[in-house]
Specification:
Layout (H helix, E strand, L loop, with lengths): L1 H22 L23 E4 L4 E3 H4 L4 E7 L4 H17 L4 E7 L7 H11 L6 E3 L4 H6 L6 E5 L5 E6 L5 H13 L5 H4 L11 H15 L3 H14 L4 H13 L6 H16 L4 H13 L3 H14 L4 H13 L3 H14 L4 H14 L2 H22 L1
Parallel strand pairs: 3-4, 4-5
Antiparallel strand pairs: 1-2, 1-5, 3-6, 6-7
Helix pairs in contact: 1-16, 1-17, 8-9, 9-10, 10-11, 11-12, 12-13, 12-14, 13-14, 14-15, 14-16, 15-16, 16-17
Length: 383
């Protein structure tokens, strides 16, 4: 018993050290739909083999007015729906300048049976399907949910990100493609009713962009005022509220009242955009930080109902179960998250935490070691 307690204390210090290293990656959790790319950035180039073994380069596919890059997997039920919808859109809009690429991210290495399934699914599409063996492109883009879609313009600049593929996403994706092609006609316009598309006020946008720049420069506290100004200038814009909420959570140790304010801001954002997966997952994280584990679990489950492959929600679910002392469902949740994103250091750290709670010391040490190695690698890439 004494040896077990001593070992637990030793691991307690080790866990704190691991979490400190992970905290160095970012003072504020990322708000983007993808972890490593965002709208307005140039899409990282990549080269992958198609199902015939031929190498396809992303830059060779640029030039179309709109290029959709879809990340999909055979184990993701919504992937088949996405591919079917993209195929229909591709056939209807190809002559107007629309192209598509499907990037399969089933696993780091696939078996013969899995390859057969991949080929069967890909055979239903007219556009190319590529294999991301080793999940290098998956990691480079920081895919959070499967399936997901990125829309690029002819220069390769990211114009739109769609994480997950909820039922309502079919309409949203089609409309975004048509807008980028310049052929979108709203129902109101078809009826002869002119409606101005909602755009945040210019001054609010300037404050929001300034806040993002300050965060990128490692000055999140200075970004608070600009997020507040943006939110005040536009009561119908969720993003400034979420950005501010993330900073407040990161600063909660200095002022515990920050958590209550962060929750209020997140609920405001959710009222602006109900059933938004990322906002629901973030609400779950805020509730977890407040120690309201059961409520956090409910919010995470609500997010996962909309997008079962949303890894941030799976991470919160695992942490909530672990803190509630329910280690078996915690292990299931984090295993699913790691199946979706096997090189995520925060997920690996949670796997280690679950293993510690289970008394599986060797498994915990292995998970923590890998988490630290990947975190340090990420930190080097960021610099």
């Amino acid at each position: 018993m004494h040896a077990s307690r001593s070992r637990h204390r030793t691991f307690g210090g080790f866990v704190r050290a691991v979490m400190a290293v992970l905290g160095l990656l970012s003072a504020v959790p990322p708000a983007s739909a993808f972890k490593r790319v965002d709208v307005g950035q140039e899409a990282p180039d990549f080269s992958l083999k198609n199902l015939a073994g031929e190498t396809v380069h992303l830059h060779d596919k640029l030039g179309a007015k709109v290029l959709a890059v879809a990340f999909w997997a055979t184990w993701s039920p919504r992937s088949q729906t996405l591919l079917e919808d993209l195929e229909l859109t591709y056939r209807e809009l190809r002559e107007k300048g629309f192209e598509a690429l499907a990037v399969n991210i089933d696993r780091e290495s696939v078996s013969a049976d899995e390859m057969k399934t991949i080929r069967d699914w890909a055979a239903r599409s007219s556009f190319p399907s590529l294999l991301d063996e080793g999940l290098g492109v998956f990691s480079t883009y920081g895919v959070v949910a499967v399936p997901s879609v990125i829309l690029l313009n002819k220069e390769g600049t990211i114009q739109y990100l769609l994480p997950g593929y909820a039922t309502s996403a079919r309409i949203d994706l089609r409309e975004e493609i048509e807008k980028l092609l310049g052929i979108y006609v709203s129902k109101a316009e078809k009826l002869g009713i002119k409606l101005r598309e909602y755009v945040p006020p210019k001054k609010a946008t300037l404050h929001y962009q300034k806040a993002l720049i300050l965060i990128q420069r490692g000055m999140p506290k200075k970004a608070i005022r600009d997020f507040e100004e943006a939110a005040s200038l536009d009561p119908n814009w969720a993003e400034p509220r979420l950005g501010l909420a993330r900073i407040l959570v990161s600063e909660a140790k200095e002022d515990p009242q920050n958590l209550a304010r962060a929750e209020a801001l997140t609920r405001e954002a959710l009222a602006i955009g109900p059933n938004h997966v990322q906002t629901l997952a973030w609400l779950a994280e805020v509730l977890l930080a407040e120690g309201r584990h059961t409520e956090a679990l409910s919010a995470a489950d609500e997010a996962l109902t909309l997008s079962p492959s949303h890894t941030p929600a799976l991470l919160v679910k695992s942490r909530a179960y672990r803190l509630l002392g329910k280690l078996e469902p915690a292990a299931v949740a984090i295993a699913e998250a790691l199946r979706l994103d096997p090189k995520n250091p925060r997920l690996l750290a949670e796997k280690g935490q679950v293993a510690v709670a289970q008394g599986r010391w060797e498994a915990a040490a292995a998970a923590f070691r890998e988490a630290v190695e990947l975190a340090l690698e990420e930190a080097a890439n960021i610099r």
